[in-house]
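In response to a reviewer's request, we include the raw inputs and outputs for one of the modeled complexes. The two entities were modeled together in a single run.
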Amino acid sequence: MKNLKFLLLGTIFGFILIKAEVVSWFRIQEMFRFQSFHMYGVICSAIVVGVISIFLIKKFNVKTFSGEEIKIEPKVFTKGNVIGGLMFGFGWAMTGACPGPLYALIGSGLPIIIVVLLSAVLGTYCYGCLKDKLPH
Amino acid sequence: MNILTQPWPWYIAGPLIGLMVPFLLLLGNKAFGISSSLRHICAACIPTKANFFKYDWKAEKWNLVFALGMVIGGLIGGYFFANPNPIALSESAIESMNSLGVKNYSGLIPSDVFNFQALLSLRGFILMVVGGFMIGFGTRYAGGCTSGHAIMGLSNLQWPSLVATCCFFAGGLLMTWFILPIIMHL
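The model returned the following structure tokens for the whole complex.
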């Protein structure tokens, strides 16, 4: 099964998110109240490593393990970046989670978070149905 | 075994999270991003007429498998190797959250606020159901979440991702400072 490697990588990622405590409602509150450097350290150092990685991949024209050219789709600006961004920010501060942490929290033995995930799926569904009527 | 149960400092955890970006690119030319999985779940499970969900979601199955992996990672890290101690929060954070009415600081989330019984209260319903809805609606409208925009997008120096990330934070600050105190005292 060719997706097995993604299962493994996802498992590692979920594990890291728990150990970093970025899945914690407490940590998110602490971040938005500027009461600890922890979350900022995690996010900023992750971005620095990401920037360096993509820079090196582009500079040395690194190929995938199977020899393909690496292609990254550019992000296109829409009004959704602002309106949707603010909405997600609200949800992030309320639930203390972004989509990734929802999965990891469910795994950690918190079935109540399944409710939050289902609600998020419903939110995405409603966006999909209303997409053409929303400003972009 | 300490390293498996103890929390990791930001300078270990952050760079490891950043490494997801090159690993996904090298392993399969995939852009790091989690919120798309919510769209794939809709496309796979909910019958609909909306064009937004009419695409070959099976081609994006890796993203769902990655999400499933995260559940397993959560099980290993948060259940089998759970940190036995409460999170080492700053004094000021605990003081602020006390004033919001939080009582239980063991575990990853305040279990006195997030539980099935609380779903029946206005506060719990707003936090869990409305909050979850905003995550799903907002991330798709914004075209990504913390992973897709804040980490992947910024790593690739995309300015729309910078706009989105700033708005994530602006929304979070507005909620935390002005709206959440009201919700918490409902």
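As requested, we also summarize the result in words. The helical segments of chain A are 4-20, 25-32, 38-59, 80-95, 99-107, 112-130. The mean pLDDT of chain A is 97.
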